[in-house]
Amino acid sequence: MKYRINLLPEKKISLGGDFFYFVENYLKYILVITQLVVIFVFFYRFSIDQQVIDLKESVTQKREIVRLVLPMVKELARIENKTKEIKGVLKKQETFKESTLYFFSIIPKSVTIENFEMKNNLILAKGKTNQPADIELLIDVLEAKKKFKRVDLKNLTKDGSNYQFLISLEN
């Protein structure tokens, strides 16, 4: 068995005494913690304000960069469009050159071309020869090599000893 004996008499604390006891023991800690929180929030606010200022400056700088670069971007787009057009013209010229060189390389010696015309993807060649077999040979070679989608002999007329013809070639 254990007995508990309290030899100190119980103190009667009044309402004012309770308040002073609370102030002495707990309020100072609450005030210190509150002051620390206020100081932390104060410094955090400085940090946030600086970030806002930096972001505003960044936005201003980027707007200025966009304002200065926009004419260059428009000019670049215009140049790019012209470059595409030039490449298209160069490609057409190269195709015309290849077609022309190929066509003239396979013409028999007895055939004379009087008129050579190219419209879009169509080549018209008007010529004459005194040997009809050369016209047939030319048509056969053009069809056999398949460099052109379509080969047509449009007109074939005899004028004295010469044969005149018109060949249509489609690229």
Description of the molecule:
- This protein has 2 helices and 4 strands, in the order αββαββ.
- It is an alpha+beta fold and 171 residues long.
- It has 2 domains: 91 residues; 65 residues, General secretion pathway protein M, EpsM (Gyrase A, domain 2, 2-Layer Sandwich).
- A 4-stranded antiparallel β-sheet has the order 1-2-4-3, with helices on one face.
- The mean pLDDT is 86.
Categorize the overall geometry.
rod-shaped
Oligomer: single chain
Percent of residues in helices comes to 55-70%
Counted up, domains total: 2
Q: Give the strand order, joined by hyphens, for the main sheet.
A: 1-2-4-3
Order of helices and strands: HEEHEE
The largest sheet is: 4 strands, antiparallel
Strand content: 15-25%
Q: Structural class of the helices, strands and pairings?
A: alpha+beta
> Could you tell me the number of beta strands?
4
The N- and C-terminal alpha carbons lie at a distance of 120 Å
Task: Supply the key terms.
171 residues, Gyrase A, domain 2, 2 domains, four-stranded antiparallel sheet
Summarize the structure.
The protein is of the alpha+beta class and 171 residues long.
How are the elements arranged and paired?
Blueprint lengths: L14 H91 L6 E8 L2 E8 L2 H14 L4 E10 L2 E9 L1
